[in-house]
Amino acid sequence: MGVESIPKEGNKVRIQSYKHDGSIHRVWSETTILKGTDHVVIGGNNRTLVTESDGRTWVTREPAIVYFHTDYWFNVICMFREDGVYYYCNLSSPYLYDGEAIKYIDYDLDIKVYPDGKYHLLDEDEYHLHKERMNYSEDIDAILKRNVDLLQQWIERKKGPFAPDFIKVWQHRFNNDFKSY
């Protein structure tokens, strides 16, 4: 019996984020799969329960589209707010899906992108602290630096999940094909 590696469209799955040392970081209880291929998973969620590593819980405030790719060390959350689309990009290992959840390792660094296209790299202090504590290898450090550069290029060129058509298509699909509220 093989492990399921592609989540099926319409299924609701959990997203589990880990730290490099294997400890759980954060869990999103439910995301509706809008597209699943060998390389890409796109999901949607709204008012989803999130559990932090310390047991605290909160509920997401707005609808969001999530983008994962097997070839890149980042994932992207597109959040729909009244004043536009905000993106929260996690520098992370490529995801895997094991039939139970979409799983990845969170590597601390994040990029927040505002509706006007401006963006900021966040949590560099946390990255350096965890790099020391959890012994990130030089290879991982180099991969993450390359992926920060790549992600910034995607943002500036409006590529992938930053393309206006991506947002229109997947927001419409989530709102109309999968009753989310």
UniProtKB/TrEMBL annotation:
Gene3D superfamilies: FomD-like. Pfam families: DUF402 (PF04167). Its EC number is 3.6.1.15, 3.6.1.6. Mg(2+) 1 binds at N90, D106, D110. Its cofactor is Mg(2+). GO terms for molecular function: magnesium ion binding; nucleoside diphosphate phosphatase activity; ribonucleoside triphosphate phosphatase activity. SUPFAM superfamilies: FomD-like. It is an enzyme of class 3 (hydrolase). Keywords: Hydrolase, Magnesium, Metal-binding. It catalyses: a ribonucleoside 5'-triphosphate + H2O = a ribonucleoside 5'-diphosphate + phosphate + H(+); a ribonucleoside 5'-diphosphate + H2O = a ribonucleoside 5'-phosphate + phosphate + H(+). Mg(2+) 2 binds at D108, D110, D123, E126. Residues 21-159 form the DUF402 domain. The active site is at R26. Has nucleoside phosphatase activity towards nucleoside triphosphates and nucleoside diphosphates. Belongs to the Ntdp family. This is Nucleoside triphosphate/diphosphate phosphatase.
